[in-house]
Amino acid sequence: MPHRERSRMPQGLESEFRQQVDRLHRFTVVMRWGVVLLLWLTVGTWSLWSFRYEISLMREHFTWAALRYGILFNRLPAIGLALCIAMTLSVLYWQTRNIVWGRSPRWQQRLERQVLRIRQQGQRHPLWHWVCRQ
Predict the structure, then answer these.
(1) In angstroms, how far apart are the furthest CA atoms of the chain?
(2) CA angle at residue 96 from 31 to 127, to 5 degrees?
(3) CA 16 to CA 1: how far, in whole Å?
(4) CA distances in angstroms from 70 to 34, 50, 130, listed in the order given
(5) Contact 82, 48 (CB under 8 A)
(6) Angle CA(74)–CA(78)–CA(79) in degrees, nearest 5?
(7) Stretch 37-49: mean pLDDT, rounded?
């Protein structure tokens, strides 16, 4: 929300608006981790199951060559595992950055605009229940 719009807002409404922005941020964090969990439960499980023979061989005699050939001969499961690992690391990095350095101004403005849109639409918006509850 631009500064001049925020300054016109009464103190109680500004604090309520901040709480709603925080709720939307928490909802976003939960949903991102939910997507990661869903990926691991579907794609990750299937990928690991497809690698079960290679994993059993590598448990006995691990070599980098065995890992390389396991990936080369099982490309689709390797891509699935790479996707799961990449999504996990990206969400972990995003959340860590937000915790350590705070939300970026661009992300904060995006959240504020989203909350304004949710408030404007009212109960018809799918996120109204989670963001604007009283």
Answers:
(1) 69
(2) 25
(3) 14
(4) 29, 10, 45
(5) no
(6) 120
(7) 97
